[in-house]
Amino acid sequence: MFENKFQLNALALAVLAMLGAMSAHADDDEAAALKKPANFMSLGITNVNGQSVRFGEYNGLDKSVVTLNADVSVRDGTAYQQNEDGGTSRWSLTGSDLGLSSRTLGASFANQGTWNIGLGYDELTHRLADTYQTPYKGDMGGGSFALPIWFGTAANTNTLNAAQQSALTTLDIATKRVNSSVNAGVNITPRLSLNVDFNHLQQTGAKLLAFPAYGSTRPAATAGLRVTNSAVAVLPMPTEYQTDTVTLALNWMGERGHSTFSYFGSFFRDGFDRVSFDTFAGANKTQTMTTMPGNEFHQLNLSGGYAISPRTKLTSNISHGRNTQNSVFVTPDTGMLGAALPKASLDGLVVTTHADVKLTDKTSKNLVLSAAWRYDLRDNQTESYIYNYYSVRDTNPVYPNTPLSNKKNRLELAGDYRIKPGHQFRVELNHEEIDRWCRQYAVLPPTYPEGTNCVVADNSRENKLDTTYRIKPTDAINLNLGYAYSKRNTNLDPTAVAAFNSTKAGSKGLNAGDFLGFAAYFADSKTQQIAKASSNWQVNDLLSLGLGGRYTDDVYDVTYGVKNGNTWSLNLDASYAYSAKGSVTSYVTQQHRQRDMTNLQLTTPAVAATATAIGVPANATWTNKLKDDDITVGLGVKHNGLMRGKLDVTGDITYSLSETGYSTQLNYNAATATGVTCASPAFLTCGDLPVIRSETFQFKLTGTYHVEKNASLALGYVYQRLNASDYFYNGYQYGNTPATLMPTNQQVGEYAVNLVSLSYIKKF
Prior knowledge:
Layout: H1 2-35, E1 40-49, E2 66-76, H2 78-81, E3 89-96, E4 104-111, E5 115-134, E6 144-145, H3 162-166, E7 169-189, E8 192-210, E9 234-238, E10 241-253, E11 257-270, E12 274-280, E13 284-290, E14 295-309, E15 312-325, E16 348-364, E17 367-380, E18 386-388, E19 398-400, E20 404-420, E21 423-438, E22 457-474, E23 477-492, E24 526-538, E25 543-556, E26 561-576, E27 582-600, E28 621-641, H4 642-645, E29 647-666, E30 687-688, E31 692-708, E32 711-725, E33 751-763
Parallel strand pairs: 6-12
Antiparallel strand pairs: 1-2, 1-33, 2-3, 3-4, 4-5, 5-7, 7-8, 8-9, 8-10, 10-11, 11-14, 12-13, 14-15, 15-16, 16-17, 17-20, 18-19, 20-21, 21-22, 22-23, 23-24, 24-25, 25-26, 26-27, 27-28, 28-29, 29-30, 29-31, 31-32, 32-33
């Protein structure tokens, strides 16, 4: 018996020793993980079967090609492995998508509590079009585009001859961003530190831009510049930009407060000041279009916070900035000016001032109150002068530049109250005031007399109430309910005169050239209501559900323009863990947006119906409706530990459909004397336009096989398809462009692409 007991105890001791050793080993692994970070490197290849600028818009996988790609993350230093011995140094090297056009690379070095330095580099190529065609000779990203000298005239560009059509060549349009940065910091004292950040951004390539072009000089002094003969429609506008930004910050940290004094500077330069291109007017005629001017921005900032007491805190920020732009004006083409330029450059100056302060007080265990004030001033001190240009509609109006300024004041009062455990209520009151004006506006009677106002919506006041109620009836359920109401009142000045002013028949006042009763919706008086709700329910240990919704209703106080609009969205998601190693997730999102508009018909007096024209009453109105609908459905599956723990699999299926519809109704008897309606192909002035539609389907499957503890192979497959229709592109096609404009034959961008990737991942 003694021997049996001894044997049992020996066995127990052996088991305990083994468990202790396993526990110690686990503890050692955890301790090692803290002392030495997990580093990894992956190297792989990607094969794309299919070509689409939309699929590879940002990653460079826009053509059928095999690409080598790599990711890396390495961190080390004495602060990891020798921390107990006083080690304080750290360094890191990270990189992602190193074989793609979206690559990033970074490095950092630091001595904990003393100094740090970091280097960064990233690229991003944005592919915009691969179906754009043009007869113009010139490089994408260049500043000169010329018609072939033999191209000749085409009174109607829908009937180009065979030689002219053969001159159409395809250009791949893209922009490339290269970003380089360096940052450094030093702790001067335990409470005082200095930080420096510098960033250099270079942008090259081009973006497609419609050019207002003419094909002949003015035949008479009052004829203006007209679009005739073979004129350009769309050309690649070069983006040869360089932007340098620098930030210097001095930081102080005390026992109860902190503050930062900083300088921010931004310096933008454009490598081009103009783009030249040809049109045909008996011979090739070169025209110019100016590019974006350079500018500088300098700003001083002071921010900080102070704990007045353990329950009361105060934070504040103030800043002052100066934005200047003084690039020399490019001399306009001959015939464009009705009078000499008033000065050689804009000499623009905008001064910005910001201030905010916030006081937060934990009044009691269940109540937190806060009050905040924000002030923003954009003071445009640029001088206004009269510029006299001919327009494409053969008129010679005067155009003053409009140095618009605005001032915003915002006051916020908020309270969070814990009614009881699981019940919390928040209420927030906001008051915002906006004033808009021109410090100085050019004077030229009778159109622009002394004291003319440059903006119609010169003042607005908005009050908003926002409430949220959070409920947790059980440990498994969370509910959020919210309601917001806001009212904006805008003062409209009907005597204001806009820079591009024109008199419209039937208007009863100036209103910046628009009909009285019209106001831009983003500045007009508005009543808005928002209702929102969301819930999360942990049904059991395996199943969780989420449901959310939001509804917004906008009503505008106008006679003409946007009258009302509404948006709503619904979201449903679910997650089910069918085993310890596997789970399924699914989601559905639907959104709807609608906007209704009523406008005045530009007809005074009434026009009688004829056999070939629709009758229009005086002061008749028309209404249109814009609707957007989107739905996205997704299903994801994840299962780990297949093939004796060696294989992890993830899969995802996503489907989305977006549709936009636009319809117009005439609010009068819209028919000819013979009964032909406004919806007839002869007019197309009412009815529904074709639906703009975008349908996307994506299937993703990835398997990761663990060759050994720290080495894996990952095999992935992606199939993505886009079906789209947009009548906007119809006007780009040869045979459908306006008679004087060159076709570009751009396509909407449908595609079906297969992608296979294989990568080796090593952890160390």
